[in-house]
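Reviewers of the previous submission asked for a worked example of the structure-prediction workflow described in the proposal, so we include one complete record here. The input consisted solely of the amino acid sequence. No template or homolog information was supplied to the procedure at any stage.
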Amino acid sequence: MLLELLHDFRHAARSLRRQPGFTFIAILTLAVGIGATTTIFSVVDSTLLRPLPYHQADRLMQVLVKVPAMFGMPPQ
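From that input alone, the workflow returned the following structure tokens.
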């Protein structure tokens, strides 16, 4: 089994050496895919999975004041 695996690895290495363009594109595709996956996981982990770094973070709220003149609406 190990000999077959080593034989397959050597065959793959020879094939990739014969086609440098394909090898470059394959490595570039893997690099971009791994980089994108790492970036997306980092964003999801920091925004959705980890709790907020505040005491009683579930009690946080947002206060928003809309001033009608700011949006070009007439005051009521």
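The radius of gyration is 27 Å. We consider this example representative of the routine output the project will generate in years two and three.
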